[in-house]
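Quick question, first post here. What does this chain look like in 3D?
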Amino acid sequence: MLRKIVIFFAVFMVGMIASEEFSLLDFETIESSHQEINGDLSIISTDNTNDVIPHPPVHYEMVQPLRSVNGILHYAIGARRSSDRLVASGGQNQSWPQPHNVQIQLTYPSQGYGALVTYVAIVVNQTSSLGQAYVVKGGINQHQITIVVEAYNTNVFNVFAYVYGI
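> Answer (accepted):
Ran it through. Tokens below.
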């Protein structure tokens, strides 16, 4: 339990530094799902174990990893603007005794339309460096975005997402 808390805060701090925001008061804890949400961000986990995760169709926009250091992957899409602000953020922690393939879906806003999305930063802590992220709905300069994040052969999957908009 202490290890999970330390990992959570380490990844949280890296994410906050990467997103140029720092406020520990921005999150509300939802105890039952180990999920934290600020704003209107939905995080849905698929219920797979070691199932093969299909690759996205060619027409989906891939979210390129900025860097990968010791199992911490940084994905980003779009660009920060001087007038944008953090409109939603959230995270989810999962772990298993055996390696798993995992897929989650991040959706902003959870329903309807939100702010005009300018930038999305995603920080993933996992035990392998294998994974990908891609946009399946909406996108940058639109009022909604849905991104699927996948990790392969991992025992730990901690994801934190930051959505900026105008």
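Confidence is low (pLDDT under 50) at residues 11-36.
The longest helix spans residues 2-18.
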